[in-house]
Amino acid sequence: MVADRDRDEAGRAKNSRPRDASGRPLPRGATGVPRPDEEEDLPPDEVFARAQDLLDRDRPFDAHDVLEGAWKAAPPDERMLWKGLAQLAVGLTHEQRGNPRGASSLLRRGAETVAEAPAAAARHGVDPTALAGWAAAREVSGPLAPGLVLRQR
Length: 153
Fold this sequence. Notes:
The structure is a single chain. Helix content is about 55%, strand content about 0%. By secondary structure, the protein is mainly α. The longest helix has 18 residues. The mean pLDDT is about 90.
């Protein structure tokens, strides 16, 4: 184990360096954007609200953290839904960072993963077909396509 690496209370590696809005690490001591607590156990409606707010503010990396927290805490029958939504947010992060190939791969994979959880998607108001259509459009048009809407409002 590397002694100077950031660790949480359980000893797991955790990077506490400040980050920019795209999630890129900044030098220690720099001022970054506030980060969500991905370990916070939130009810699904709060997860959707926080993640959507972050997406609407062009912060997909942080939206991913919120969605990943839900994925880790989700019951087994919902994990694929949250995993897929987190992958869509990571796809947007790759797009934001100028990596169209990575964006394309994750957008496609995220939509496919959400589609593997139709019951959980229906329970939470998520339309897998609409997300697949959005991902395909975003893959072709990039940021010119509409932003990601996680579920019908």
